[in-house]
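Structure, all two chains, one model.
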Amino acid sequence: MKTVKVFGPGCKRCQTTEAMVKEAAAKLGIAVEVEKVTDARSIAMAGVMSTPGISVDGRLVHAGGLPDAGKLEGWLRA
Amino acid sequence: MTVDTHEPTVPRGRPDWLWHSGVLGFVAIWYAVYTQLIPVSEWIASLFPVDRHSHTGEAIAFFFYDVPKVMMLLTLIVFAMGVVRTWFSPEKTRALLSGKSEGVGNVMSASLGILTPFCSCSAVPLFIGFVSAGVPLGVTFSFLIAAPMVNEVALVLLFGLVGWQVALTYLVFGLGIAIVAGFVIGKLKLEGWLQDWVRDIHSGANTPVAIQDERLSMVDRYRMGIEAVREIFGKVWMWIILGIGMGALIHGYVPEDLMVRIMGAEAWWSVPVAVLMGIPMYTNAAGVIPIVEALLGKGAALGTTLAFMMSVIALSLPEMIILKQVLTLRLIAVFVGVVASGILTVGFLFNLIF
């Protein structure tokens, strides 16, 4: 079980990102627990300066804009 | 938390050369269509059984010329800026600004505010990221003022609907306000007025980690440009239509002598009123500029109109509510006060000169 955090205050792109993560995980057959971090303070403390940001098992992999679908699969597989 | 700097390379669907020629082809077609816009719009307008110089005729020509023109300009410029911005991540901007002295730092910060991707929804994480890395408070403010106020959507619409002179004026004075306001806030030494938890990070007690920059191929940059176009259009089209509708109403129904009396250069009080009115109004550049165009056409003074537009775009209530998480009310009040004074000065100055 991988823990994926999606950092974002709840804008449309953040919701899209969350959906993309779930979709990619389902496609790869990887069990993930997606947690949304919406509190600005927690977002900032995680080192995310532009949202949406993504971390996989505590490792920050992406910040700012929608993730690339191919790269997203790479992060989930790693 | 560690960061993986080695991105797995993902095989791409299309070869790079196809992307490059695709972008070149798009620009060529864009140019060809753009140069044909006036004849085509005149031809379409001539199909309607109304006099070209009547109100309705003007409205039809406007609709078939200005609207496509603005949309085309937006597509090209937003794409270009989307690509350019991939070289200016917030992380890089922060590295450039950290430890910069005030003055030079403010100028750099305001300019980078135009080039760095910014969304008001991540204003707080960005603020923390800057302040925690040792970017001075005033320099951070220069960025936060310039980034939303001087943006390509505002500039393109001003250029397309009002003219390049006003667009350039807006660019120069928008930057000027961001630089000076940030400088003044820096000189006031208000670090103590940040919310407590932000102050702790500032002192280095609790520094958040930073993500490394990813390596991007040119094709990745194109993709991000396309994404920017899609996003801006998704957000902006409704405002443009609303704004153009409002503008048309002003064109058609607001008597000119009334406008001159309310927003003309003679009415000195109109500048502060325009600024005050702009604060609670929440629309983005796309909605306000068609209105600005109509106001100018009806004889509103340039300074008053600029002040109104800057206030609507730069001082917005929702953004202040977001910033409340990191700034105390006193600091927000100073921020609004300093920016509003800058806008007032620009308004009065232009009414005086023109």
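The interface with chain A takes residues 1-4, 7-8, 10-11, 89-91, 94, 117-119, 121-122, 124-130, 132, 197, 201, 206, 208-211, 220, 223-224, 227, 231, 322, 325-326 of chain B (CB under 8 Å).
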